[in-house]
Amino acid sequence: MHVVDVGSGTPLILLHGFGVDHRLLLPLDPTIEAAGGWLRIYLDLPGTAGTPIGEVASTRDVVDAVKQEIAGRIGDEPFAILGNSFGAMIARQVAHDLRSQVLGLATLAGVFVAEHARRVVTPQTVLRTDPQALALVGDAGEDAAEDYAEMAVVQSVENARAFLAHVRPGLLAADEEGLKRIAARYALEQEPEDADPAPFTQPCLLLTARQDQVVGYEDAWAHREHYPRATFVVLDAAGHNAHLDQPALTGALLMEWLSRIRAAAGS
After folding, report:
1. Could you tell me the residue ranges of all domains in the chain?
2. What are phi and psi of 11, to 5 degrees?
3. Nearest to 86 by CA among 123, 117, 60, 67
4. Which of 16, 70, 187, 230 is the most buried (most CB within 10 A)?
5. Model pTM above 0.90
6. CB-based contacts of 40: which residues, under 8 Å, 6+ apart?
7. What pLDDT does residue 28 have?
């Protein structure tokens, strides 16, 4: 598995979403660096250019691959974990499987219901269009402009540049055929909160977006009793790439989550 390590200190595992790669989460790195004392471990999940799909053929296989990578890198050392979209589903399962080792869990626009038809989502919404942003992305190709327009709730030149730097490269490099195998067995046999129903008491951040037409926000909030130490947030003017739409608010919430983990760990 291709891994990018940044910094030193307590391990923080970061898992990207479906069809992209670790670059999607790199905009979070300045905030984590500013918090101090975190070894950021960005994983490229199977099906990316960095990590070939191999024998992986289901979401459960991805979970097992991530757990194997964690064991090989940090052993039984305590760690925190953050997942975005599909990566959040993986992170939730890993956090429950390795509950005694996990210091905290964060989900950013996370998948909580695997089946699209069962998700409670909002219609696609664009609160602000920006012709300059669309032109900038359009220079990278018609498909890039379509991808950006589909996801950006508040279009801006800065947001478009973030899309080109952090989203587009992973989309282009994804193993589409390999990902189809995982998509065919996308759901876990049982949601981790149901399989392991004892409340998850480590500090958590469940960040959702009001205009997220991919996973919505209500499905995450339905688990609020399972996560008694969780900050639940729904950001307005944000879609499925919430950390790109609302970078300042996401950064502040991430910083606060990391500080709660430190306080809970007594360090």
Report:
1. 3-122+174-265
2. -65, 135
3. 60
4. 16
5. yes
6. 4, 5, 6, 7, 12, 14, 29, 32, 33
7. 98
Cβ-proximal residues to 253 (8 Å cutoff; 6+ apart), any chain = 205, 207, 231, 233
Give the strand order in the sheet containing 38-43.
Answer: 3-6, 38-43, 10-15, 79-84, 102-108, 204-209, 230-235
Residues of the chain with pLDDT under 70: 267
Q: What is the pLDDT of residue 267?
A: 60
Query: In terms of CATH, what superfamily is 3-122+174-265?
Result: Alpha/Beta hydrolase fold, catalytic domain (3.40.50.1820)
Q: What is the pLDDT of residues 208-261, one digit of tens each?
A: 999 999 999 999 999 999 999 999 999 999 999 999 999 999 999 999 999 999
Lookup: tokens for 94: 């890993």
CA–CA distance, 235 with 207 (Å, rounded to integer): 8
Q: Could you tell me the two tokens for 250?
A: 């996401």
